[in-house]
Amino acid sequence: MLEETGLPYEAHYVDFGGKDQKTPEYLSLNPNGRIPAIIDPDGPGRQPLALFESGAILQYLAMKAGMLMPADDALAWQTIQWVYFQVGHIGPMFGQVGYYSKFEGKDVSDPRVLQRFADEARRLFGVLNDRLAGRQWIMGEHYTIADIAIVGMVRNFVNHYEAGDRVGYDSFTHVKAWFDRMMARPAVQRGLQIPARPA
Questions:
Q1: What is the pTM of this model?
Q2: Based on the domain organization, do 103 and 48 belong to the same domain?
Q3: Does 94 lie in the same domain as 37?
């Protein structure tokens, strides 16, 4: 988002293995102890503003930059609903698939747990695939915060969790084409390298 807008920023690497997200300094920005979190030293009224939760951050940055949201009020609200679709459905469900297929949850012996989350992830891919049929971006011709909100979760699901085969990812051709368009954006490619990871 920040690479797309051109707003100046300074990125900080949060080491989950080192529990950076549980330090008092980080918890002062995000009491939930998760990523992302931002602090804008030039927030509303020229006062610092700390925000957490990806959907709130995306909406705030879109308003601040005056971009990546349709000017039409109805389209803007529809964009926000797709951001919430990621926050309320895609993010939690894709994350559960990752946990139970790649991380500590893979040791759970009952296969029904992973199957439940994989089935729901497949359904959500279907919703997204239907939405993208005949559209370049989630909001049609408008590239928005909805695309930015969702792309990271799809990328994690397929590349990091390596769970695409569990849901038949290759069959979601509209999602795959959209994902390729997203990955081709220079700002997305730059953003994937920020912040620099420790050697």
A1: 0.94
A2: no
A3: no
Integer distance in angstroms from the first to the last C-alpha of the chain? 25
How does residue 150 score in pLDDT terms, banded at 50, 70 and 90? Answer: very high
Q: For 10-14, 86-90, 125-129, 149-153, which range has the lowest pLDDT when averaged over its residues?
A: 10-14
Give the helix/strand (H/E) hosting 71: none
Secondary structure (3-state) at 195: coil
Q: Is the pLDDT of residue 130 over 80?
A: yes
According to DSSP, the residues that pair with 52 across neighbouring strands are 37
Nearest alpha-carbon partner for 43 in 16, 7, 1: 7
Using a CB cutoff of 8 Å and minimum separation of 24, what contacts does 158-163 make?
160/98, 160/102, 161/94, 161/97, 161/98, 161/101, 161/102, 162/101, 162/102, 163/97, 163/98, 163/101, 163/102, 163/118, 163/121
Same domain, 100 and 149: yes
Residue 88 shares a structural domain with residue 183: yes
Examine residue 92 and say whether the peptide bond preceding it is cis (omega within 30 degrees of 0): no
Q: Number of structural domains, the chain?
A: 2
Query: Does an H or E element contain 60, and which?
Result: helix 54-65
